[in-house]
Write a structure and sequence with these properties.
alpha+beta, 13 helices, BirA Bifunctional Protein, domain 2, 5-stranded mixed beta sheet, about 350 residues, about 35% helix, binds adenosine monophosphate
């Protein structure tokens, strides 16, 4: 987190991301005593002190997930596919999945040393920012977006030449698994992501419709973070994604989000008080299983049908005198207009089948 005085001198502390908070919560609440691996997620606002532009804001919403307590490449595979599946299930297509390994405590120091050597040989090409990073964390210079650094970055040592056997094998397995799952991955040897705590796997999902801010989400493995914040040595891997950028990507592809709150069942009443009371009771019963609407305005049959249509209801259950007498409900499928007469005892079962039979479920 970072702390600064606002214009009135009040001290503000804001969080830029969620992973460190999850790691601290894990330690503070002794979560290693719980199920292993532990699967967590968060959704909430994050704050960055950056120059705002399209897709980059000072406050944005993130969705993140962390898998804590599994060191094998299968865990990395699950997190990358979870992130990709999140986007594809929302309807996105133009995705690029970038994958890299930043090594571990055994091999990263060799790479960092090689990088420092190289950069020391090109000091005159470094910006002031880079000179500072050269001492603090030269890895960050790798994914520098500074156009002045482009030529410099192209000549930098390649991390793949410095990975130890264990890291190389881990990386290879993650990539193979992803390929077997049909996820097209691109090797991205310059991808390090901003944070210092990553070990081995780092990944990013990019989208072409976002302009300069092309990263839709990303994450990586952080096997030493929990220990660093005072906990036991527990491996972990996670990701986060920005809601606003995801919406921008959806917009650029012209994808409308499915209206998940439209009712599955609309109950339509034909009749008087007795039928209206029966409809209310039926609605209460059906709500245990279905998103259900029922008329509360005393509207006529035609207006109720129009209302059900407008709400996008999949099925209409008619409650009239005939239905109450016979103990059979009339169920209409809105899309096809087909009607069926369904015995009361079978209503839920039949509605479940009919709701599931729609084209987009
Ligand atoms: P990061 O932790 O920087 O990798 O951010 C994870 C995701 O959050 C990014 O891929 C973006 O989708 C989103 N994100 C990060 N920073 C911003 C920002 N300043 N404005 C909007 N979205 C952001």
């Amino acid at each position: 987190m970072y702390t600064f005085p606002d214009r009135k001198g009040r001290s503000l502390t804001l969080r830029p991301e969620g992973t460190a908070s999850v790691a601290r919560a894990y330690v503070e609440h002794n979560l290693q005593a719980g199920p292993r691996p532990l699967k967590t997620y968060y959704i909430g606002p994050m704050f960055r002190y950056e120059r705002p532009q399209a897709g980059r804001y000072r406050q944005h919403q993130q969705i993140g997930a962390e898998l804590i307590g599994a060191s094998g490449p299968g865990a990395d595979f699950e997190m990358v596919t979870l992130l990709v599946d999140l986007f594809t299930s929302a309807g996105l297509t133009g995705l690029r999945v970038l994958l890299n390994s930043v090594g571990d405590a055994a091999c990263r120091p060799n790479f960092t040393a090689a990088l420092r050597d190289y950069l020391h040989g090109h000091l005159e090409q470094l910006t002031e920012d880079m000179k500072r990073q050269l001492e603090m964390n030269p890895l960050r210079i790798l994914d520098s977006k500074d156009p002045r650094a482009k030529a410099l970055v192209e000549g930098m040592p390649d991390i793949r030449d410095h990975l130890c056997d264990a890291c190389r094998e881990h990386h290879r397995t993650v990539r193979t698994l992803l390929e077997e799952a049909g996820v097209a991955v691109e090797e991205a040897p310059r991808l390090v992501r901003g944070l210092d705590y990553y070990t081995r796997t780092v990944f990013e999902v990019q989208h072409g419709g976002l302009g300069a801010q092309s990263a839709l989400g990303g994450g990586g493995r952080y096997d030493r973070l929990i220990e660093e914040v005072g906990g036991p040595s527990v491996p972990a891997v996670g990701f986060s994604t920005g809601v606003e950028r995801t919406l921008l990507a959806l917009e650029s592809e012209g994808v409308a989000l499915p209206a998940e709150d439209s009712p599955e069942v609309a109950i339509v009443v034909a009749g008087g008080d007795r039928e209206r009371r029966a409809a209310l009771l039926l609605a209460r019963r059906l709500r245990r299983r279905f998103r259900t609407e029922v008329d509360l305005l005393g509207r006529g049959l035609g207006r109720q049908m129009k209302g059900a249509n407008k709400l996008g209801a999949r099925l209409v259950v008619l409650v009239g005198e005939g239905e109450l007498e016979s103990g059979h409900w009339t169920v209409k499928t809105m899309e096809s207009g087909e009607q069926a007469s369904v015995a009361d005892a079978e209503l839920e079962t039949r509605l479940t089948a009919m709701v599931g039979g729609g084209e987009d479920s």
